[in-house]
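Exercise: predict the structure of this protein bound to calcium ion.
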Amino acid sequence: MITGTAGTDDYVETVLTVTIPAGATQGVVNLTIVDDNIDEATESLTAVGTATNATTSSPATVTILDDATDVPAITLGDVTVTEGTDPTAVIPVTLSNPSDEVVVVTVTLAAGTAGTDDYVETVLTVTIPAGATQGVVNLTIVDDNIDEATESLTAVGTATNATTSSPATVTILDDATDVPAITLGDVTVTEGTDPTAVIPVTLSNPSDEVVVVTVTLAAGTAGTDDYVETVLTVTIPAGATQGVVNLTIVDDNIDEATESLTAVGTATNATTSSPATVTILDDATDVPAITLGDVTVTEGTDPTAVIPVTLSNPSDEVVVVTVTLAAGTAGTDDYVETVLTVTIPAGATQGVVNLTIVDDNIDEATESLTAVGTATNATTSSPATVTILDDATDVPAITLGDVTVTEGTDPTAVIPVTLSNPSDEPVVVTVTLAAGTAGTDDYVETVLTVTIPAGELKV
Ligand SMILES: [Ca+2]
Ligand SMILES: [Ca+2]
Ligand SMILES: [Ca+2]
Ligand SMILES: [Ca+2]
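Solution:
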């Protein structure tokens, strides 16, 4: 009879006999031991010998030490998970062979490129029942909004009654929705006041890598004479979401409408932005001022007074200057009263208007009028003076008429005085007498004068 902690899976159960010859006292029986791969404690059984013609023995103990190669080896499986999709990494834990005791495997984590912001650091254990070889531990994966490269950590399994595993790798693929989107802010600047347009660059969420955003410009109504065309870049550090690029604005002296361009941000590791608009308000000081030049003309020689019209600086639009006349000593009988306009093309600053001068035969003093220039998109000028010198041939010639009188009948000789053409001032004609065959005893010697009114040829 055989009993003990060792069972019939440890040795071959059978009836063992030995025949001890007459006269002898020694013999052996051979108990077959089972060689399994189960990790076992030291076990024993007992054996008792009986014979019909001998006294039964006391129990003897057979002790079975376990095979040292039956200590199970732990293996952890490599796992790949996707952040956002897989809340846990299920790490398989395997024993190379079973144990007849419970095996409690402790899984220890070691950060690699993945750190403790990528998974929940904790002690992971799995209890593998006696006789079993499979189990799992669940590693919680952190779902953040950070754009990350593929990262990994390692895990090692240990147990008091099993051989420590090699490191297994847990690979974490990033959530595809964590790729940041670029947004550029719209900006309005004023030429002359703002040397640069500071364009805000924002990421929808951070990256764990540097994001270099390239801002590409596209001309709209604003062109490359309005801003400095160049490649703009901003480096947004890992973990940050804000930056700016500085677009240099050209400060010219051209009067311009409000203009705009667009900007788009791109990066190798972020989503391209929608176009943002940079609006450029013009410098208020670029509205051109009109200047009219003073002109002197001579009636009869100059049929027109050519009045120069100048803008202080150009406009990118046509400037139509209206020149308004105001009579001075010269009136509308000295020049043709009409609306004078000149169209100065975009980008130009010079023009003229032609004022028609009336050529009469009236003897006149030097006269003048004034002219003022206005436009909807320019500043009104100061008055300019147009001076009209009179035609030298308009000085009237005096003609005295011959007269015959009869002494005793005609008490006076009425001498006609006539001007060749009128004057705009009274003409006082002095008639001087000179004795001929008639002497001062024939007429009254005196100074004779006659005043011919302005505009008349005779009295
Ligand atoms: Ca064994
Ligand atoms: Ca992430
Ligand atoms: Ca301008
Ligand atoms: Ca005249």
